[in-house]
What does this fold into?
Amino acid sequence: MLSIDYRGERLLGEPALLEQPQRWPAHVIALNLARVGSDLGPDLARIDLLRRLAPQSRLYIAGGVRDAEDLHRGRQAGAAGALVASALHDGRIQRADLLQALTLTSAPPRPRRPSPCPLPRAGEGTETFPSPACGRRGGDEDGERGCG
It folds into this structure.
């Protein structure tokens, strides 16, 4: 896996990398650090540019993904997937959004429904991590996960 990192319009790394896309691996992350946690949305123009440079690589958007609509727009722009953090932590993207994004259809995302807890319910996932939304750790002594 390769991560091609930008801060705004500035490439962070060797420009020669962009001149040899045939040498890129099968999976490439297109990260714009200026968009991380910014709520600006992903850099879809960058995905389009990199996709044209390296059609043989699967591209992943990173930085600025706000909601399920951004996941859908990323798919439409040619992204194979997305790296998402802030929108998961604060609940703007839910488990159902991720499942829908994994499907191969281009159906629009479901309407967003606010949830106080981004953790999966019992049996829905294997993650165990703290959730600031519900103030409790996923996975208690009874094996329950999430907030409810």
Notes: The radius of gyration is 17 Å. The chain has two domains: 2-115, 116-148. The longest helix spans residues 44-53.
